[in-house]
Design brief:
The protein is an alpha/beta fold. It is built from 16 helices and eleven strands. Strand 2, helix 4 and strand 3 form a beta-alpha-beta unit.
Length: 472
């Protein structure tokens, strides 16, 4: 029961071959059929069917619904929605009902998309496997003994299982690309500031971006194009000069690729390395140039990330005091104990860990030793990526050093878990767009090829990703 491409699905809707209600009922059926994978936190049954019927009636009246007319989708459960609770997979927000929509949701639904469910994630998007969800762990669609990746693991699994043609994700250090790699689908992270983060539960505000997970590059391009807009509710957004992502022409153009030396020479599954190098040879045989590129400070990116990110996490999570919103304790004798118990009960172990790390690196006596140094290296990374893009059009390498790992394998070793982000965090630190596309399998599990472009070159990234998708 796989879905056609989004453009085909919309065409079938527009010519009356299929209705929005039929699409929604199909999605709901597939969600129910695959509930054992624990990809979904909440289902939007009644509201989705009602909206589908309304859209069907509007089409019969001759109205042009939009570019995503009648297309079901799933939102990661850190996107604020009026129709369903927004939990961020955390006990802190398990009963939170937003009174407004996130901007990304609003833009999608203005074009006729219909939200059918909200997907599981690591609580507050803190993690690499969804094992940090306070509710349940999402299983890998290929083998249930393995993780789906994180933090957008529920979204990735849902798309891989055909629950909907696309799902929304957020990416702070690889949270879209890593689960896309583990589940064998496409995951896109845009240039920082091209999509509004208004109405998305904040993790690390200088790193967070909104992206999409799909079965193919063309679908990702259409959805991302719809969401790309300046938003007065997010001061970091800006006008992208070329946002016609879905125009995937010029497929005959030859490009210059840089194979990232530090990623291909690090500790990596030999099957993944061989697969990436095989892709390089295919690119060369198609007339593209490929050269090895070194980014000297890249080995420091993970350390920088796990200073900058927890610092911002600690700041963003300070608002959850149990009074304005968030979990409220029933056990307290005074205000200090109320704060302590509310936060202790509401936050999971990983959130507490990141709050403590972040508070430490921002504290007096350690701010200069850790946080300031991390920001200095971050600036150096930005400069080195800029230098690399003066010589090549795109940077490529594996999305992850390995395929998905078994559930429970790394959950008791936070450092081993953090190391899974080693190939994805740098793009968030420097703000550039990146995508993971399926590249092959190792021992029966999928892995991805990561492609990176310079700032604001999202359109070009989609074009070259389509080329790579077609030749792989």
């Amino acid at each position: 029961m796989s879905w056609p491409n989004i453009s085909e699905l919309v065409a079938k809707f527009n010519n009356g071959e299929i209705s929005a209600e039929e699409n929604v009922l199909k999605a709901l059926e597939l969600i129910e059929k695959n509930n054992k994978y624990n990809a979904i936190i909440s289902i939007n049954t009644d509201a989705a069917i009602a909206k589908a019927r309304e859209i069907d009636q509007r089409r019969k009246s001759g109205e042009n619904i939009g570019r995503l007319a009648g297309v079901p989708y799933i939102a990661k459960d850190n996107f604020l929605t009026k129709e369903l609770k927004t939990t961020a997979a955390s006990n802190m927000l398990k009963d939170y009902q937003a009174n407004y929509q996130s901007t990304a949701i609003k833009l999608l639904e203005e074009q006729g998309a219909i939200m059918v469910a909200k997907a599981n994630l690591d609580a507050f998007a803190h993690g690499t496997s969804t094992e940090n969800s306070d509710f349940f762990t999402t299983a890998n669609p290929i083998d249930m003994e393995y993780v789906a990746g994180g933090s957008s693991g529920g979204s990735a699994a849902a798309v891989a299982l055909d629950m909907a043609p696309f799902a929304l994700g957020s990416d702070t250090g690889g949270s879209i690309r890593l689960p896309a790699s583990f589940c064998g689908i496409v995951g896109f992270k845009p240039t920082y500031g091209t999509v509004s983060r208004s109405g998305v539960v904040a993790m690390a505000s200088s790193l967070d971006v909104v992206g999409v997970l799909t079965k193919n590059v063309s679908d990702a391009a259409i959805v991302q194009e719809v969401m790309t807009a300046v938003d007065p509710l997010d001061s970091t957004t800006f006008e992208l000069e070329d946002k016609n992502f879905s125009e995937l022409d010029n497929q005959d153009k030859k490009y210059r690729f840089g194979l990232i030396k530090e990623h291909i020479e690090g500790e990596i599954d030999p099957n993944i390395k061989a697969g990436i190098l095989n892709m390089v040879e295919k690119l060369k045989s198609e007339g593209h140039q490929v050269e090895e590129v070194s980014i000297p400070d890249l080995p420091l990116a993970l350390a920088v990330y796990y200073i900058v990110c927890p610092a911002e996490v600690a700041s963003n999570l300070s608002r959850y005091d149990g009074i304005r919103y968030g979990h409220s304790t029933d056990q307290s004798n005074d205000l200090e104990e109320y704060y302590l118990n509310s936060r202790s009960e509401g936050f999971g172990a990983e959130a507490k860990r990141r709050i403590m790390i972040g508070t430490h690196v921002l504290s007096s006596g350690y701010f200069d030793a850790y946080y300031n140094k991390a920001q200095t290296v971050r600036t150096s990374l930005i400069n080195q990526f800029n230098d690399a893009f003066t010589n090549v059009d795109f940077l490529i390498g594996p999305t992850s050093p390995s395929t998905a790992f078994k559930v429970g394998e790394k959950s008791k070793d936070p450092l081993a878990m953090y190391l899974m982000d080693i190939m994805t965090v740098a793009t968030n630190l420097v703000g550039i767009p990146a995508i993971s596309i399926p590249a092959g399998e190792s021992n029966g599990l999928p892995y991805g090829l990561q492609i990176m472009a310079n700032l604001r070159h999202d359109h070009d990234l989609f074009k070259v990703s389509k080329i790579l998708e077609d030749i792989k």
